[in-house]
Amino acid sequence: MRLHGIDITAFGPFGGSQTVDFDALSAAGLFLLHGPTGAGKTSVLDAVCYALYGAVPGARQGHQGMNLRSDHAEAGTRTEVRLELTIAGRRLEITRQPPWERPKLRGKGTTVDKAQTWLREYDATAGAWKDLSRSHQEVGNEIEQLLGMSREQFCQVVLLPQGDFARFLRADAEARGRLLGRLFDTRRFAEVEKRLAERRKATEARVREGDAALLADAHRMQQEAGDAMELPEVAPGEPGLAEAVLAAAAVARSTARERLTLAHCRLTAAESAQAATDRALTEVRELARLQGRFAEARQRAVRLEERAGAHREAQERMERGRKAEGVAPALELREAAEAGHRGAAAAEARARALLPETFAGAGVTGLATAARRAAEELGGLESARRAERRLAEVLEERGRLDRQDRDDEDVLREAEGWLADWDAARAGLQARIDSAQEAATRAEQLAVQREPARRRLEAARLRDELGRDTDEAQRAALAAEHRALEARAHWLDLKEQRLNGIAAELAAGLVDGEPCAVCGATEHPAPARKFAGHVDREAEERALAALQRADEQRAGDERRLGVAREALAAATAEAGDTPTVQLAAQADELEQEYTRARRAASALHAAHEELRLAEQERERRLADRQQARVRAAEHLTRREALDRERAALEQELARARGGADSVAARAAQLERRAALLTDAADTARAADDAAQRLKDADARLADAAYRAGFDTPQAAAAALLDGAAHRELQHRLDAWQSEEAAVRAVLAETDTAAAAQRPPADPTAAEESAQRAARRLREAASACDAAARCCAELDRLSARAADGVRRLAPLREEYERVARLAALTAGTSADNERRMRLESYVLAARLEQVAAAATVRLQRMSSGRYTLVHSADRSGRGRSGLGLHVVDAWTGRERDTATLSGGETFFASLALALGLADVVTDEAGGVRLDTLFIDEGFGSLDDQTLDEVLDVLDSLRERDRSVGIVSHVADLRRRIHAQLEVVKGRTGSALRQRGVR
After folding, report:
1. What span, in angstroms and rounded, lies between the C-alpha atoms of 248 and 13?
2. Residue 63, pLDDT above cutoff 50
3. Nearest-5° angle of CA 194, CA 200, CA 203?
4. Higher model confidence: residue 438 or residue 660?
5. With CB atoms counted within 10 Å of each terminal CB, which end of the chain scores lower, N or C?
6. Which among 961, 987, 20, 175 is positioned nearest to 544, based on CA atoms?
7. The pairing of beta strand 30-34 with beta strand 979-983
8. Between these two residues, 435 and 677, which has the higher pLDDT value?
């Protein structure tokens, strides 16, 4: 990897854009990066790391994102770092812009732009740059893959950090292990330890789970076997658990089978006793049934004997009823004849009661003759009826004509009166239309003038408001400018005071025995003291923040003033100089006149419609008047014809009515008389016929009663049975016969009679005996089933336990094997003699390589005196650590690195850093690191040692490397000609290259 150049803009202490040409600096092989304390030397290295990895190194990692932005940068300048370098033969350009908060393009306030990243590659064939990616993740993965190092490794190998390797040299084993673990990425070995430990826990948990399941089966077997099984007193995971459980299960199974055999014997005996008691109970129940059947039959026989007389009477009553059934038709015929005679006589009496007294004694023939004469007279009145109906029609038509004549006269009179006023009404309507038309024309003219007047009034009001806003904005802008000037003067005063007392501020951090950050000395005889009113960094930063806020407020007020002035000019151009009150009065007057014109014009449509309706009404009234005159002439002729017809009809009706009020009344009299006479004649003939039929029925009934054996017809009627009585009597007779037959059959049964001769049966005692036998059988069967279930369950659980023991055997072997490996890698096993963890073992090997590579340069720097060696001495909790000792060739003894002096510690740390860089480079796949940076520490070396160290660094050029030394030691500026100077000032730091072409 070789750096060619870097462009830094608004980054760290650099407020503007700065450019570094690493090609020119690297031409000398060794170049110096120097400047006063706090100028930003380390920020150049931060910019390189940020361009590659998007983050700064070491303790400055917390200053990411918007915190990377320079406080000296202008508000519109974006922070950017552009690095050009060559990696693995590929020339790349990386540009990164962290997120930044900038002013909004429109409106007030600020907005945050996201971070941006670009990666480009130079195409030598095309002679141009080509874009590769704009993704943060893709660029980061590509750079890390090309370099073969993470950010932590890069910061330790390329940017040799200020003071970090002195700490690494003197660190304890634990701290040294953490750093080596980050550089060599031994997480995979730690992961192996972790995975083995997790696997040991997992297999142990599975073994315990299997043992717990085995014990659970044992507990269930104990529940089934009861006191026949005793559980072993062992816990899950303990040896011998499986054998103890299987042995106890075998004892329980044997005991359970013995109990099952005894239960089978008891069940067989109970079944035999149950069968005997069931047979005895059946015999007793049958005997009791036969004895009850015989006793019941005897009781039924006694009851039949008691009802024998009633049975004989029912038989005699049934016989008389059968004889009376032969007389029933004659009785029914006589009753029908008598009912018909009574009805005919009543109808005749009613008909004669309606006749005049002159016909009271008339016979059938006289009544019929009178009816014929009334009908003949009624037929002669039909012509008079038609004349009467025609007269009514004539009178009705004559009245309708009179009513129509009166209506026509009213129509004529109303039409004449309305038409007389038509000309005046039409002239008035036309005048209204003309007036409304003129108002509509005026309203259209006013509408055109109305909108410009309203816009001009609104512009005038806006003009007045903007004038007030402009005055207020101008006052605010002047006040903001005054505050900004005061804030800037205050900040400059505080900054100058702080610079005057910066020595005291730096002296506050000095500790006896530790090197000074400026000169590197470990002794501090007269540190500067803070004077009264000393200004620290926080006070200066607060003043700077106040200045920035004041500048932002001033810029915002000036922008608002410009916007207000532009708006005021636009409003004045549209409204003119006329006062707003005068424009408002003109607009109100125009609006009122427009409203009146619109109101008057709104009557135009109504006037047109009213004129159209009036003309339609005139046409209708003219037509009505003409029709009324025509109808009046037609009605006059029709009235004269109707008067002549009425006179003729009245003469004809006078002759036909006689003494009645009308022809209809006379016809109604004749019709009623003819109907009454006819009805009376018919009822008289019907009464005579009914009397004859009754006489014939009496004769036939007397003859039928005599032949059936009855003395009188009344006796036959009394003996006759209706349907319900006949069925009820027959049912009684049939029930008697059935009961008598059933009783005789029961009394004749042999086994029933024999049972009656035996002693009374006792079913209750037999049932109790059978219940006791059944209860003993159920108890024996339940005990047998329980014993069988216990045997089956013990067999099942024993088989499952044996299967679990077989399945658990490989798992137990795996657990023992994994546990041995986990203890070995964790350093807790007795087989691990050094008690060293796997990761520590790997790191110890890496540390040996680093110590060997560092010794090559350390011997040159120390004139062959010192050699770095790895120590495997145990430290802390009895385990081997990552010790690092130095061998002094002058004494031949090995001692701790903490005994080295300050200068010796520096060049030993530098040798260690360079050796570590070589080992990490080889570990990363042999990627060449052509550019290295060493940050500080040279102030602790004497001249001779400094020459030797610089010779070693200069020898790196043999491998085509360039080394940049970061220091403010003055002597180095004489020894190293190629220099990159960092100059600080009030507006930020700047970079200058010296001694290069």
Report:
1. 84
2. no
3. 135
4. 438
5. C
6. 987
7. parallel
8. 435
Average pLDDT taken over every residue of the chain: 77
* In contact, 939 and 966? CB cutoff 8 Å: no
pLDDT at 168: 66
Determine the length of the chain. 997
Q: Which two tokens stand for residue 719?
A: 């003996």
Name the β-bridge partners of 319. none
For residues 822 and 365, what is the distance between their CA atoms, to the nearest angstrom?
Answer: 150
Beta bridge partners of 776: none
Distance CA 892, CA 210 (A): 62
The two tokens of residue 431 are: 């005048």
* Whether pLDDT at 926 is above 50: no
Torsion of CA 931, 936, 940, 941, to 10 degrees: 20
Tally of CB atoms within 10 A around 641: 10
Segment 207-231, tens digit of pLDDT: 777 777 777 777 787 777 776 677 7
- For the segment 762-774, what is each residue's pLDDT rounded down to a tens digit? 778 878 888 888 8
> In this structure, what DSSP letter does residue 874 have?
B
The CA–CA distances, whole Å, from 983 to 5, 41, 60, 936, 990 equal 19, 9, 21, 17, 5
Q: How far apart are CA 945 and CA 789, in angstroms?
A: 96
- Burial code (b: 16+ CB inside 10 Å, e: under 16) for 836-855 equals bbbbbbbbbebbebbbbbbb
**996 and 23 Cβ atoms separated by less than 8 Å:** no
Closest of 183, 128, 130, 150 to residue 54, by C-alpha:
150
Q: What distance in Å separates the CA atoms of residue 551 and residue 560, rounded to the nearest whole number? A: 14
**Strand order across the beta sheet in which 30-34 lies:** 159-160, 931-935, 962-966, 30-34, 979-983, 990-994
pLDDT over 70 for what percent of the chain? Answer: 83
What contacts 890, CB < 8 A, 6 or more positions away?
Answer: 865
Q: How confident is the model at residue 494 (pLDDT cuts 50, 70, 90)?
A: confident
Contacts of 918 (CB under 8 A, 6+ apart): 853
Q: Given CA atoms 38, 42, 48, 49 in this order, what sign does their dihedral have? A: negative
- Strand bridging mode 14-21 / 931-935: unpaired
List the beta strands (DSSP E) in 447-526.
none
Could you write out the DSSP letters of every residue in 704-718? HHHHHT-SSHHHHHH
Of 540, 542, 510, the C-alpha closest to 528 is 510
Q: Which residue has the tokens 């090997």?
A: 845
Calculate the alpha carbon distances from 980 to 69, 162, 910, 932 in Å. 22, 18, 21, 15
* pLDDT mean over 412-439: 81
Reading the block at residue 390, the tokens are: 């025609």
Q: Helix-strand-coil percent breakdown of the chain, rounded to 5?
A: 70, 10, 20
Tokens for 664, please give them.
């209809």
Does this model's pTM top 0.90? My answer is no
CA distance 557 to 440: 53
Tokens of 432: 């209204």
Give, to the nearest 10 degrees, the angle between helix 663-708 and helix 604-657. Answer: 70
Q: Rounded to an integer, what is the distance from CA 598 to the centroid of its chain?
A: 59
Q: Who contacts 983 (Cβ-Cβ below 8 Å, separation ≥6)?
A: 35, 39, 989, 990, 991, 992
| Residue among 249, 515, 355 nearest 363 (CA) | 355
Dmax (CA) for the chain in angstroms is 190
Task: With both helix axes pointing from N to C terminus, report the angle between 663-708 and 364-379 in degrees, rounded to the nearest 10.
Answer: 150
Other residues' Cβ atoms within 10 Å of the Cβ of residue 704? 19
